[in-house]
Amino acid sequence: MVVLRIATAGSVDDGKSSLIGRLLYDTKAVYDDQLASIESASRQRGLSEVQLSYLTDGLKAERDLNITIDVAYRYFATPKRKFIIADTPGHFEYTRNMVTGTSTADVSVILIDASRGLFEQSRRHIAISSLLGIKHLVFAINKMDLVNFSEGIYRQFANQLTEVASKLGRFDCAFIPISALHGDNVVEASQHTPWYHGPSLLDYLEQADIETQAYEVGLRIPVQTTVEASGKNGETELYALGLIESGEVAVDDMVTVLPQGTKHTISDLRNVSGAVPSAIQGESVSFKLEPPSPIKRGSFIVGAKDWPKPTERFSAFLCWLSDEPLKLHAEYKLLHTTQVVSAKVTHVVNRIHVESFETEPASSVGTNDIVEVHLTLDQPIFADTFEECRPTGSFVLADATTKATCAAGLIRRLQETSEPVEEVSVGIS
Amino acid sequence: MSQTIWNVEKEIRPVKRWNIEEEAIYILREVAGQFRKPVLLFSGGKDSLILAHLAVKAFLPGKVPFPLLHIDTGHNFPETIAFRDEFANRLGFELIVRKVQDSIDSGRVQEESGPFPSRNRLQSVTLLDAIAELKFDAAIGGARRDEEKARAKERVFSHRNAAGQWDPKAQRPELWHLYNGLLNQDETCRIFPLSNWTEADVWQYIVENQLEIPSLYFSHQRQIVHRDGQLIAITPFTPPQPGERVETLNVRFRTVGDATCTGAVASEASNVKEVLREVLESNLTERSGRNDDHRTEAAMEDRKREGYF
Questions:
Q1: Taking a contact as any Cβ pair under 8 Å apart, which residues of chain A between 127 and 186 contact chain B?
Q2: A247 with A303: CB under 8 angstroms?
Q3: Which of A182, B48, B155, B183 could bridge B142 with an S-S bond, Cβ 3.0-4.6 Å?
């Protein structure tokens, strides 16, 4: 069954947890014992109504403080699709969680409180969706019951959001008037919005066109690990295991093994179901190389031509996730595909204002900042830009001492020579 | 025309959309690539046997590069243990067993007192001791995020400090499929390749791949008592209490953990397809029969902090 991955973001009071609770409840993904358990938790906190939001606020601290502090994953299914919701808090201090939850999403569902104005956090989620290359945005214009299901107010929000979204990226947008509390247009079409002829939220999610982007950079298989197996004459043969991140490969194809740059042909190709003549982007495969090559984790299988140039310096967007500020010129571990190298941030170009994409000078980089930086590595990697190929154009930085993940990176410009990276300002022209 | 950061409009070529099986296989290969000495936690239950089955697929035509580890509470159903041994043998896995009884005998843990003692919580100590003794740096488990609310927030690569503990507030952000398994001295990772599977996915997979599973999952006659709204099987570790009426019913188990905390459900489902239908129609989560989760509102969160599976 097709799996659709959804990122939601919202603040304490715009009804996001209620919306998710409602989706789970109305698609019967909530079991009686879960309902009994949230009923009892609601009662213990002196609440008269059952809090559907407790279905998503799983940790003790969240219930006590009445906030959502992390990314929670929720599952529900209809006969048409299986859905995975990455549910993240919307406050500025949780930009990092929003980035994390959105990194794997097909669709962003952005909640708007119709009884109030447009908040910065909505702009932030639109901007983050744009940065991470999400194509589909669904605006759930919530609390329509508090504004008498007014078409005028709905239109006003839709127009305003269309303008914001078109400034921040190129999206396929939908605007759905809902009441998460009462269930209007969440699963079933509402009687209260006769002027609205679009799908309910669930209808939209069931029907959204979610083709995975096919990358055009040629073959890219980072080797995850290797295994040995006995050949026909009892000799030991080495197999490479990896995911085809881009392109396609067939038995007898000529490929290049990086970093060596040697040429080999593919034999005994398998996907997860067994031996196959060819395989495409998105498949996990194993194969032998002829003549054999001393491949290991971190080796990179690419096409006979179309291979990425080695680079030790590039510019990238960083979303800073750690509580510790960025230390310029200090060593970090950079995880890129199946490699780990040492990296230093040598220059902060600017900070990107998350609500507008306007740039501002930055002298320091702290939690939740999105910045453009220059990085220098201690050894070359073979990469693409994020725009060309997301899996080979993204990376994370880990603290060299604690090994904790401290930044998400998106490669913007690769530099192949010793010239300084050209500075190009981002944002709206 | 406005300028955008990334041009996302591209010609569409056929690509394979990642499904949960591909994702799990990718994760298992990452474990083999990133860690020095991983181990697969195996109980004979359906989730861990799917994991073992996926591991076999992931490393073909080679062998799975890690052993199985079972933490035996001594309170298992005999059917589970027989299945475990047969399964490991048939698929050519090395099986390591560590016993909670040994942890009790050596004074590492104390048996619970009270009317319904369980060794479920004690397992954490035996597990952490086994990880330390055998110097494993990654332990792969079959936990799923749909099982329980604290698990819904746990990462696929879930970091444990040098004492084996989980800090839910200091989890490493997990982006794309770039899993950070970097560790310092004595730190470990728990790995959950089935994070995004649901109970229905698990049964679907068993049906589609015609996997053998322990007989406890199918309807059979068993002596039970009703206790706190649950059906408790009568075993040497769970005798009937004074005043309880022992009945014989057709039941099956939705999880096959420790007998002291695993409730049965009344069922006539005698094959995998019937079980799948029952799961899809059920109004209760599979852990509703696990009284270990019901002790307090955050029972699972608390146990996980201590090092539980």
A1: 130-131, 133, 135, 166-170
A2: yes
A3: B48
- Closest residue to B301, CB basis, from A59, A131, A386: A59
Q: Which of A97, A170, A283 sits opposite B8 (nearest CB)?
A: A170
Q: How far apart are CA B279 and CA B274, in angstroms?
A: 9
Interface of A with B in 18-77 (CB under 8 A): 31-34, 37, 40-41, 44, 56, 58-61, 69-75, 77
Per residue in A259-280, pLDDT (tens digit) is 999 999 999 999 999 999 999 9
**pLDDT surpasses 70 at B191:** yes
Q: Please measure the distance between the N-terminal and C-terminal CA atoms of chain B and give it in whole angstroms.
A: 53
Question: What CA–CA distances, in Å, run from A95 to A357, A426, B199?
Answer: 14, 20, 32
Best of A170, A244, A270 to substitute, by most chain B Cβ atoms within 10 angstroms, is A170
Residues ≥6 apart with Cβ < 8 Å to B51: B24, B28, B40, B42, B140, B141, B142, B193, B194
- Percent of chain A at pLDDT exceeding 70: 87
Q: Do A224 and B150 touch (CB under 8 A)?
A: no
Q: Residue A429: what pLDDT?
A: 31
What ranges make up the beta strands (E) of B17-134?
38-41, 68-72, 95-99
ipTM confidence score: 0.89
For residue B115, the tally of other CB atoms under 10 A from its CB is 6
Nearest CA in chain B to A55: B149
Q: Which pLDDT band holds residue A84 (cuts at 50, 70, 90)?
A: very high
**Tokens standing for residue A29:** 């993904």
> Looking at chain B from residue 174 to 203, which residues have their Cβ under 8 Å from any Cβ of chain A?
174-178, 180, 182-184, 187, 195-196, 198, 200-201
pLDDT at position B121 over 50: yes
CA A381 to CA A399: how far, in whole Å?
Answer: 19
Give residues 262 to 291 of B whose Cβ lies within 8 Å of A: 282-285, 288
Asked whether residue A424 carries a pLDDT value surpassing 50, the answer given is no
Q: Does A243 touch chain B (CB under 8 A)?
A: yes
Q: How many angstroms separate the Cα of B76 from the Cα of each of A345, B217, B236, B253?
A: 54, 14, 10, 13
Cβ within 8 Å, pair A272-B21: yes
